[in-house]
Amino acid sequence: MNVEMKNFVENLIANGAAVKTYAKFARIQARPASEGEVIETVLADGTKETTNTANAGDWIATNPGGETYVIPAAKFPKKYEPAPELGEGWYKPTGGVQKFLELEEDTSFVCSWGEEQFIARGGMVNVSDLDDIYGIARDEFFATYKECDENGNFI
Asked: 76-88: per-residue pLDDT in tens?
């Protein structure tokens, strides 16, 4: 199913979809992107999730499971800080509490970066900012996020 995601999410929430709070706990490896660098995000199971082209100042991040993706320059310092105890190129999350809902069916949609993203049933969609909705596949999500209360305390 290909959808206009903002309206889709608004309808899900209006109809009682459970929005839960999570915080990222996983450390990532990251490096500055080269302008025009194309990153294809591929999940551990080989599923292509999306493609994104980096701009000047953006960062290329790699989660522990190997999923690689682009983080815009303006977002990176709000979401991560260096983790020197792990070595050069390692970062820890600082993004705090975020809101997610679980998809009940396979869904593809156009992300804020203008590319199509496919998220299989059971994947999670970040609905913290309805103008910047993106999905995370189920296995990758639970390998990097934990449920928390509104203050960021893990449950």
From this structure: 999 999 999 999 9
